[in-house]
Amino acid sequence: EDQVTQSPEALRLQEGESSSLNCSYTVSGLRGLFWYRQDPGKGPEFLFTLYSAGEEKEKERLKATLTKKESFLHITAPKPEDSATYLCAVQATGTYKYIFGTGTRLKVLA
Amino acid sequence: DAGVTQSPTHLIKTRGQQVTLRCSPKSGHDTVSWYQQALGQGPQFIFQYYEEEERQRGNFPDRFSGHQFPNYSSELNVNALWLGDSALYLCASSLGVAKNIQYFGAGTRLSVL
Q1: What are A89's strand-pairing partners?
Q2: How do the pLDDT tens digits run along chain B, 113 residues long?
Q3: Using beta carbons and an 8 Å cutoff, which residues of B are at the interface with A?
Q4: Using one digit for the tens of pLDDT, what is the confidence trace for B2-20?
Q5: How far apart are CA A45 and CA A36, in angstroms?
Q6: CA distances from B50 to A14, A62, B30, B97 (A)
Q7: Which of A77, A79, B66, B87 lies in the 20 to 30 Å Cα band around A12?
Q8: Which chain B residue shows the shortest CA-CA distance from A43?
Q9: Are B99 and A51 an interchain contact pair (Cβ–Cβ within 8 Å)?
Q10: Is A65 helix (H, G, I), strand (E, B) or coil?
């Protein structure tokens, strides 16, 4: 069965303290892997999509990487405004649905 | 450029009632997907509509049904509401091609009492 597991469930960082979030996935065939940011009471905001192992994408303080089994979201020198829940989702080949993990709740302290 | 819009923002219903949620996709998008997000969980896929037809369905009972209109907007209907249906309902729009990126609206918070 296709599934996504994210770790850690929650993470507290000091401002400027870099870290990584993990997304492990099991899927019959990967069409795409997606990272979203979700603020409380809001809908997920698209960040990155990765399609093949070895691919990397960057946006400001965020960098997403992909292997055949997992993806990492690296946060460099985070700021308090980076506090949010980060969701990972996969889309399997032959399907249209996204399968989401439960997310990592990130809190960045000033 | 308007993004995905959903209405209403919040809704309170009682058990057994029926509810209709609405979604207008992002400009230029022709595909709408619906997700249910319980508190502290990731979104769960309900179904996707493309060309006014249900293209794929997740593991949800027949109480959940939908519709897509010629202008690509969509409705989600839930009959015989249970307490467990309380959740944030998210609409996502995309282009109908296989490798698509889904863009989400702000959601409708449904509370069933």
Answers
A1: A34, A100
A2: 679 999 999 999 999 999 999 999 999 899 999 999 999 999 999 999 999 999 999 999 999 999 999 999 999 999 999 999 999 999 999 987 766 899 999 999 999 99
A3: 4, 31, 33, 35, 40-45, 48, 50, 55-56, 58, 88, 90, 92, 98-107, 109
A4: 799 999 999 999 999 999 9
A5: 5
A6: 45, 33, 7, 10
A7: B87
A8: B106
A9: yes
A10: strand
Q: Give Cα B91 to chain centroid, integer Å.
A: 4
Test A43 with B58 for CB contact under 8 angstroms: no
- Amino acid B82 reads W
Select from B42, B48, B109 the Cβ nearest to the Cβ of A87. Answer: B42
What is the Cα B14 distance to its own chain's centre?
A: 20
CB contacts of A87 in chain B (<8 Å) are 42-43
Give the pLDDT confidence of A64-107 residue by residue, as tens digits.
999 999 999 999 999 999 999 999 999 999 999 999 999 999 99
Interface of A with B (CB under 8 A): 4, 31-32, 34, 36, 41-46, 49, 51, 87, 89, 95-103
Contact B37, B49 (CB under 8 A): no
Per residue, the 3-state secondary structure of A12-62, as one string, reads EEECCCCEEEEEEEECCCEEEEEEEEECCCCCCEEEEEECCCCCEEEECCE
CA separation for the pair B109, B105 (Å, rounded)? 12
- What is the reported pLDDT for B99? 66
